[in-house]
Amino acid sequence: MTMTPQxxxxxxxxxxxxQALLGSCSxxxxxxxxxxxxxxxxxxxxxxxxxxxxxQHEQATHPRIxxxxxxxxxxxxxxxxxxDAAANIRELDRDYKRRLRLPQALVEELARxxxxxxxxxxxxxxxxDFVRFKPWLEKIFELKRQESACLRxxxxxxxxYDPLLDEYEPGAQAxxxxxxxxxxxxxxxxxxxxxxxxxxxxxxxxxxxxxxxRDRQRxxxxxxxxxxxxxxxxxxxxETAHPFCSGFGPGDCRITTRFDDHHFNDAFFGVLHEVGHGxxxxxxxxxxxxxxxxxxxxxxxxxxxxxxWENAVGRGRPFWGxxxxxxxxxxxxxxxxxxxxxxxxxxxHVEPSLIRVQADEATYNLHxxxxxxxxxxxxxxxxxxxxxxxxxxxxxxxxLGVVPKTDAEGCLxxxxxxxxLIGYFPxxxxxxxxxxxxxxxxxxxxxDLDSSFAAGDFSPLxxxxxxxxxxxxxxxxxxxxxxxxAGPASLxxxxxxxxxxxxxx
Length: 505
Ligand code: ZN
Known about the structure:
The structure is a single chain. It is built from 21 helices and 3 strands. It has helices spanning 5-35, 42-60, 63-73, 84-100, 104-126, 130-151, 162-168, 174-199, 214-228, 264-283, 299-313, 317-330, 332-335, 340-347, 361-379, 388-400, 426-446, 449-454, 459-468, 478-485, 491-503, and strands at residues 235-239, 245-249, 252-257. It has a 3-stranded mixed sheet with strand order 1-3-2, with helices on both faces. Helix 1 crosses helix 4, helix 11 packs across helix 17 and helix 15 packs antiparallel against helix 17 (426-446). The protein is globular, with a radius of gyration of 23 Å. The model has no long low-confidence stretch (mean pLDDT 95). The structure holds zinc ion.
């Protein structure tokens, strides 16, 4: 009996949904590993993660999927490229072919190694012990080189970096990023210098380092998160060493942060950032869960959502026009006498620093460019893991004028490499560039956005993002999705304008 394209398509979707459920189980365990799991659970968790990754890979590479794709791909279902079915089939085909190129042994080895390496990274960072972490980093880059080689077919040229980058940002290429980042570097370094010179001797962000009791920080952050639209009946906030957002699926989105009693920015803007990710996850269509149309399209687009809420909205005057009075009441000892102008100057303070996640908007992309250059060199064999700390210091000195005293505040600060996330960093900067475009367009389309923010109404922007970005899932490639949603805009230009207004630069 021959199968109709329609029933083949339905079986494809049912299989995809099963895979998504398995992925969601891994996500729950990954979240638990970083929030509540005792240290003694690391080995068991490594085995659990490897088992699930293996099962998922088995399902995702099942020959049956190939048969079903062959029936649906050339059928009338896929004839109109704008139809739901055509988009789902195109993306499932992409995922299948990509997975098929990876041997199961390599997938399981990567899952086990990165699970253990993350626990080792936590210890190495807390003890400032690069030597302890070094063999793990070497192993991970070796496995990622193997992964890249498997993904590149014999005929394809290009960088070993491209297949890894493509996992996070479909269609992006290292060579394009190199050019893009050169321009950005050339514009950002002098802008940062000018702002630093102009604001030298000012109070800077001193008021943000007063005492902000963490229980109150949590209450304020949750109030703002709910205020901009994060649905706490379908999500929650917990604490981790490294903040993240994990959308398990419809109805359950986890965000995390870390609190420092003497640093307001760290947790507050961290939460707002993860909330931006969470709003994207909560904006995906629940009925499409498990199909490409119900999934986020890329990390760059994901990051555009977090950056937009964290920076474009959350560091702006209209936003604080509404929230500043509440912040003054909750943190009355720290902020009682701090005016809106002084507070805005503090949350927009620019200062070259060592820690990426605490970096201001202007220097942030320089941290990313450094990581992009170093991980490419490590992957392509132009830099040995042994020489990483020295190379790290050298680039920080050149671009930011600061040098880490320890590896904990240098190359051990980020979780990404321990988790095998090579090719991930540049998506942060792509997100910043996308966010600048989306925000400019939203202001154009929605008219007086400032007044609604100042009145505490953030729903017009969220509704706009739901329509332009969230509801499409993976219907369009990331670059096309952004091109359809927004015209051109320069990130550096918008920063220049902001600093002009705040600091008269
Ligand atoms: Zn993010």
